[in-house]
Specification:
The complex is a heterodimer of chains A (about 300) and B (about 425). With about 300 residues, chain A is mainly alpha-helical. Helices cover about 75% and strands about 0% of the residues of chain A. Chain A has a domain at about 80-265: Orthogonal Bundle (MetI-like fold), CATH 1.10.3720.10. Chain A has helices at about 1-20, 20-40, 65-75, 80-115, 120-125, 135-145, 150-155, 170-195, 200-205, 210-240, 245-250, 260-265, 270-305, and strands at about 45, 55. Chain A has a two-stranded antiparallel sheet with strand order 1-2. In chain A, β1 (about 45) and β2 (about 55) form a beta hairpin. Chain A is globular. The two termini of chain A are about 35 Å apart. Chain B has about 425 residues and is an alpha/beta fold. Chain B is built from 17 helices and ten strands. Chain B has helices at about 5-10, 10-25, 25-35, 90-100, 110-120, 135-140, 155-160, 160-165, 220-230, 240-260, 265-270, 285-290, 330-340, 340-350, 365-370, 385-390, 395-410; strands spanning about 80-85, 105-110, 125-130, 175-190, 215-220, 260-265, 280, 300-305, 315-320, 390. In chain B, strands 4, 5, 6, 7, 8, 9 and 10 form a seven-stranded mixed beta sheet that branches. In chain B, β1 (about 80-85), α4 and β2 form a beta-alpha-beta unit. Chain B is globular and about 60 Å long. The interface between A and B is large, with 45 and 49 residues.
Chain lengths: ~300, ~425
């Protein structure tokens, strides 16, 4: 009897496990294989004439030439890679922080006070993003031009007394471009999470004497921490690889990011292994970020449920 | 010093070696040699770097013959691989009508991208427009087929004698010329306080802080570094001397602090649309820039400087037929069609803005006919420019690496 029961459980488990199959196949096909290809290129050699990569699939045959170049550029105090990595880190940190400052109140408002307008409000927030990222950045070029609307408005209000050249290669334009480009991807997870917070928890807090701000600080905010982290991860990852925002909104070497260097090395020339090695190093850094995310969410989950 | 491969070993040995090299170059070969794990062993034929004082006759390979004479053109569709905006659509339409075929054009945005795609061997374009500075690689890799001049009577009829038999491809075995250009400095006469000619060293205009935030270099390592070299009196724009490249790099870096220099290849719109006041510029872009001026701005607002003694940066683009072409006869007809006096001229003045090197095209008439505004007559290219100018040509792999590293360091903006 017990044996038979075991068999049923096992079959059932197998059934549920099988549901993971499409996801696993997807990950293997579109993540593991391509990523190993990048590793192969990073540790491979380059065709001496055409510069096309000759990947090394066998770790025993890896060449560390490309990685050497990257590490040297990172370690030396005047290394080019150190400059772009630090700049990227600063830009992404500022852009993520700004996105959070914008996204959190918006998501909070829609979740708490949206009422029956929730749907239309969300749709309205997301609608501009049906247009491709590239088109939106191109639109910003027009808005930010010397005689563009941004200058017109700022002049009219009186903030500026003469038009400012927003496209002269300044960091602020690039960072704001990134914020604009990615902020909805922060709003959505925050909204989904805030919307699910049990109102009775807040009511209990208020009953126990907490003011509105205290209730927010002690209940809502800690509860939404996983959503904040999820939003941060979702937008930080693509920002780290961004290269077209600085290309379009600046074009100055002063605002170039890791993505631009990767693009430069991968696109052509004799050093595609260096480009691939840059990708690997960037991935390793992001893996640290992700690991932190996983640890924190696990801890929060345990605290909530344990 | 590089040698012609034939000088170094016998023809037979050379063919064997180059066959092995070319095999390893193709994607299949790359994959196999990578899987086999014994890469690095094969020795590809060395590049023979063409220079004006070292003309190169490219190797013809037994397994890469030209097409026979007198064949009928294929049924198409003719597939063209080209820069965006580099061919008047009307040309395609008219050619298609004349030969009763469809003409399809695919674009690339950088030469690196194009070379990568062509050398993958996975695509079968019939006509390809490469830069001359990649020619040696393409020939060694057997990516191009030799041209049968029987189909190209217009080459001898319309093209400058010097480019009928150019030093980079003696006998025009693999290429015919398409357009010629100089690389000078474009500027806005209505904004700059001093034009390049006002400076003792005209290249100093890039550092003029009055134009801060409005100074652009071409986003092209070869072009940008070439101007830095020329500024310092180094006329070998194909230099592989690390000290000279280091000097060019520090010049580039100093532009970041001085004027926050920007990089772009949209010179033909950046200047007319006022994003740039000073822009390293191709002569063809200077000509076409007048078509992008906003209403109310006259062509006189545009200026183009190129050394009056012709000692500046020059180049030309070529048209070729890839080895994998499915319609090689039709492709030959298309090359000949573009070299036709009328078609080449129409293509230039109606759309492309880059001049074809035709004997029939009188540079002085371009101005008097109003094709080129008088204030941009410096953008007209003359055959004599090719005697005095400095040609950007193929670099060795080591040289390419040197240039790219310097360029990447500058672009990191440290």
């Amino acid at each position: 009897m017990a044996k038979q029961h075991d068999g049923v459980t096992r079959r059932r488990n197998a059934f549920w496990a099988a549901l993971a199959l499409p996801g696993v196949v997807w990950l293997v096909l579109f993540f593991v294989v391509p990523f190993y290809a990048i590793i192969g290129v990073a540790f491979g050699t380059v065709d001496p004439i055409f510069g096309t990569p000759i990947p090394a699939w066998n770790p025993l045959e890896w060449s560390y030439e490309g990685l050497d170049v990257v590490v040297n550029g990172l370690v030396s105090s005047e290394g080019a890679f150190r400059t772009v990595f630090l700049r990227t880190l600063v830009y992404v940190t500022v852009a993520v922080a700004l996105s959070l400052l914008i996204a959190y109140p918006v998501a909070y408002f829609v979740a708490r006070y949206g009422g029956r307008w929730k749907g239309p409000l969300l749709l309205g927030l997301i609608a501009p993003f049906f247009i491709s990222y590239l088109m939106r950045m191109l639109a910003w070029i027009n808005l930010l031009q010397d005689d563009g609307w941004v200058n017109d408005v700022l002049l009219w209000i009186g903030i500026l007394d003469q038009p400012r050249n927003w496209l002269d290669g300044r960091a602020s334009s690039v960072i704001l471009g990134m914020v604009y480009g990615y902020v909805p991807f922060m709003i959505l997870p925050l909204y989904a999470f805030l919307d699910r917070i049990d109102r009775s928890l807040l009511e209990a807090a208020r009953d126990l004497g907490a003011g509105p701000f205290q209730a927010f600080r002690l209940v809502t905010l800690p509860l939404s921490l996983p959503a904040i982290l999820a939003g941060v991860v979702i937008i930080a990852l693509p920002m780290f690889g961004d290269y077209y925002t600085p290309d379009l909104l600046s074009g100055s070497p002063k605002t170039s990011l890791v993505g631009n260097q990767i693009n430069l090395y991968i696109q052509g020339g004799q050093q595609r292994n260096v480009g691939a090695a840059l990708v690997v190093v960037l991935m390793l850094m992001l893996a640290v970020l992700l690991a932190y995310y996983v640890v924190v969410t696990a801890r929060t989950q345990r605290r909530l449920h344990g | 010093m590089t040698w012609h491969p034939r000088e170094r070993y016998g023809r037979r040995e050379f063919i064997q070696r180059s066959a092995a090299g070319a095999f390893a170059l193709s994607s299949m070969g790359t994959l196999l040699s990578a899987c086999g794990g014994s890469d690095g062993e094969f020795r590809p034929p060395e590049l023979d770097l063409a220079r004006p004082n070292h003309p190169v006759t490219h190797t013809l390979y037994d397994d890469n013959p030209m097409i026979a004479s007198g064949l009928d053109p294929e049924a198409g569709p003719l597939k063209i691989y080209n820069w965006n905006g580099y061919l008047w659509p009307r040309i395609k339409k008219d050619f298609g009508k004349e030969f009763g075929v469809e003409v399809e054009e695919t674009y690339f945005s950088t030469m690196d991208e194009a070379i990568t795609k062509i050398s993958s061997g996975a695509i079968d374009f019939d006509v390809f427009f490469p830069a001359v500075d990649r020619l040696g690689r393409l020939v060694i890799g057997k990516q191009l087929q030799p041209l049968n001049h029987d189909y190209l009577p217009n080459l001898a009829k319309t093209v400058w004698p010097s480019l009928q038999d150019p030093f980079y491809d003696k006998g025009a075995q693999y290429t015919v010329p398409y357009t010629i250009y100089t690389t000078g400095i474009g500027y806005r006469t209505d904004h700059v306080q001093a034009t390049p000619a006002d400076f003792d060293n005209p290249y100093d205009i890039y550092w003029d802080e009055a134009n801060k935030g409005k100074v652009f270099l071409l986003d092209d390592s070869r072009e940008a570094i070439a101007h830095m070299l020329l500024k310092n009196g180094i006329t070998d724009v194909n230099s592989e001397d690390p000290e000279q490249i280091e000097l060019a790099k520090s010049e580039l870096k100093s532009l970041i602090g001085a004027v926050n220099v920007k990089l772009s290849t949209d010179d033909y719109t950046n200047v007319p649309e006022d994003r740039a006041w000073v822009h390293e510029m191709w002569s063809g872009s200077a000509v076409s820039a007048q078509w992008y001026l906003p209403e109310g701005t006259r062509p006189e607002a545009l200026g183009y400087w190129f050394p009056t003694d012709g000692r500046g940066s020059i180049g030309n683009d070529a048209i070729t037929i890839p080895k994998s072409a499915k319609n090689p006869v039709l492709a030959h007809h298309f090359l000949n069609y573009l070299l036709d006096e009328k078609h080449g001229y129409d293509n230039f003045v109606n759309y492309v803005g880059y001049q074809p090197p035709f004997v029939t095209l009188d540079p002085d008439r371009l101005v008097s006919d109003g094709i080129v505004p008088a204030n941009l007559k410096t953008a007209v290219v003359r055959e004599s420019d090719f005697d005095t100018g400095f040609f950007q040509l193929e670099l060795s792999p080591a040289g390419q690496k040197l240039w790219q590293t310097a360029w990447a360091e500058f672009k990191a903006g440290g």
